[in-house]
Amino acid sequence: MHWTLLFLAAALEIVWAAGLKFTDGFTRLWPSLGVGAAMAASMTLLAFAARGLPIGTAYAVWTGIGAVGTAIAGIFLFNESAAPARLACIALIITGVIGLKFLGK
Q1: How far apart are CA 7 and CA 57, in angstroms?
Q2: Cβ–Cβ under 8 Å, residues 70 and 17
Q3: pTM over 0.70, yes/no
Q4: Spatial distance between the Cα atoms of 7 and 83, rounded to a whole number of angstroms
Q5: In angstroms, rounded to a whole number, what is the distance separating the alpha carbons of residues 34 and 22?
């Protein structure tokens, strides 16, 4: 159950991080409210997940999934670079998250 909450929290982190681009520096009301809601929900779910997981593991997995998901969203939504070196770095983050999931507790 704690891992499920953590993965939901990470998915919402991707939503709010990628959504920042749509807020135009928090000058657009509805995207800004959506980002704020996703951020609050993400943090709340992270806190609940941390009840049953080591905080170091939970936070690292949360940020890792968020970083990878946001980078991938940037590639698809904002036409950001998909250079091989960038994809290799994303793969390294994925490897670390998988390692923490299976070795972190």
Answers
A1: 12
A2: yes
A3: yes
A4: 27
A5: 10
